[in-house]
Write a structure and sequence with these properties.
Blueprint (H helix, E strand, L loop, with lengths): L2 H15 L6 E9 L2 E9 L6 H15 L7 H6 L10 H16 L9 H6 L12 H7 L8 E4 L2 E4 L9 H15 L1
Antiparallel strand pairs: 1-2, 3-4
Amino acid sequence: MNFKYIYFLIIVLISACSSDKDLKFVKFGGYAQGTTYSISYFDKNGTNYQHDIDSILNDFDNSLSIYNPKSLVSRINMNVADDIGNDKYFRKAFTKSLEVSKISDGAFDITVCPLVNAWGFGFKHSIPIDKHLVDSIMQFVGYKLIELKGNKIIKKDSRVMLDFNAIAQGYSADVISRYL
């Protein structure tokens, strides 16, 4: 028998012998990012962190949700804001998105919002799509059309719009996991 399997078995047995009876099951859910969420965990004291988590998710929505018309990303998309201030969620999501866009040579692109909306997957109803419309929209889709300098978002075209939905839910799960 391989020793690494024996060590693994010992760790599993020790873990199984721990006092799971002392842990209390906690489960709750709510609404965030245009959908519902559900969280469950075991806690020694049975502490329910829903209030704190709802607060984190509210801050997250106020930063990155295109479904929240008052969020930072919505205000940037409407060209009524360009300063992100000290918004850590926006900065990290924007920076990581540009990194992935560069690595993927634009296959992943957070400026896809106008196309998403045209096809009816965003916050607007779909419109009839043809090659000419897609070509006209593509003029203002491209991760190279937007940058962050200091705290300012610089758009090369005012029609450039951001959509973090491709990473926001995973990112928020990471934020909540770190909190817990």
